[in-house]
Specification:
By secondary structure, the chain is α/β, with parallel strands linked by helices. The protein has 14 helices and twelve strands.
Length: 346
């Protein structure tokens, strides 16, 4: 019997890309006959206290020798001293969505500390699974040999082509948690300069960072956008599917993505995409399916938005690129099988 112990911090039912990836992969492994032992770690990673680290150490100590243990990257990078006593006796695997030091909003001291901690932790695992070729390349800076890294892209569920808003105005959809990395301030600042165009924005995503949520509310008020923008918070899968179906354009100004599952979901519905060149986004969004501008540049984002608002032919061309891309997106059962093959080789 194939058994996997999976260590994941926080609420496993969270509707963010990383948690959804973890849930779909482990469900796929169970469908293949694997037994998954879920071990929930504390909520306050990636900055745990001594008590949270001690709790993680207790969990690892209770796992039998030679067991396969998968540790989500949100926790792994903080655990070099915790996993060190178990690196030889357990078959440890890291699941890295993106390096912790790349999170937006960190000061230089925190960034350096996270880099060194994750580098030490990655040296102790037998293999690292990453969610994009971009992240695989990034791990070279952490001293991880290429032969110890495998890319397993997120899957995408087949979906019908979006019908669109059906109105004269452009129905824009943004899906992303309210955190600094998602660049909602850039998106709203750009939209605030385009009130002479006919558009609406629906923003779906939980408020993970209070300061970002407060900033979003302030920008909406300061730029007189309240009659144009709908803030929905976190929505379930059925509601999200309906939002994609009514959208004409997907726009998200992320500063960095380790893959960007929401972009793949937009492509699966034939939606043109506007985003940035941050992280793995250029490898997730093909050049003929979206416009990408430098991260953090609200002026460039506004210029691209205005092009898309004014040029129906451009939107239609990008839609055709998205429709082509949707045929190449991997599916979850295939990705779970690929994940299982890596675990079986350890």
């Amino acid at each position: 019997m194939n058994i996997l112990h999976f260590l994941l911090p926080g609420d496993p039912d969270s509707r963010t890309g990383g948690y959804l990836y973890d849930a779909r992969i482990t469900a796929g492994l169970e469908a293949l006959g694997w037994t998954i032992h879920h071990h929930r770690l504390a909520d306050n990673f990636p900055f745990p206290g001594a008590a949270e680290l001690a709790h993680t150490a207790e969990i690892l100590a209770g796992i039998p020798d030679d067991a396969r243990v998968l540790i989500d990257g949100l926790a792994l990078g903080l655990l070099p001293t915790v996993i060190a006593p178990h690196a030889a006796r357990l078959r440890l695997v890291g699941l890295v969505h993106h390096p912790l030091a790349e999170e937006t909003g960190l000061d230089e001291a925190a960034r350096h500390w996270l880099f060194e901690s994750e580098k030490a932790a990655l040296a102790m695992v037998r293999h690292s699974i990453v969610t994009s070729p971009f992240t695989a390349s990034a791990l070279a800076d952490y001293g991880v040999p290429a032969e110890r890294v495998t890319v397993i892209l997120p899957g995408t569920d087949p979906a019908p082509v979006a019908k669109g808003g059906g109105g004269p105005g452009l129905n824009i959809l943004a899906v992303g948690t309210l955190t600094p990395r998602k660049g909602h301030d850039v998106l709203l600042t750009a939209l605030g300069t385009l009130l002479h165009h006919d558009w609406t924005l629906t923003l779906a995503g939980g408020a993970r960072d209070k300061a970002t949520a407060d900033l979003v509310e302030k920008l909406i008020q300061d730029k007189s956008l309240s009659d144009r923008i709908t803030l929905l918070g976190e929505v379930d899968a059925e509601a999200l599917a309906a939002l994609y179906d009514r959208a004409d354009l997907f726009a998200l100004a992320s500063h960095y993505e380790g893959y960007g599952m929401v972009f793949a979901e937009a492509l699966a519905r034939g939606l043109p995409v506007l985003s940035t060149t941050g992280g793995a986004i250029p490898t997730t969004v093909p050049g003929d399916a979206g416009l990408l501008v430098p991260p953090g540049d609200a002026d460039a984002f506004a210029q691209a938005l205005e092009k898309l608002m004014a040029d129906t032919n451009l939107r239609q061309s990008l839609r055709q690129g998205a429709l082509k891309a949707r045929t190449t997106l991997p599916h979850w059962p295939d990705q779970a099988r690929a994940f299982a093959r890596i675990l079986e080789t350890l």
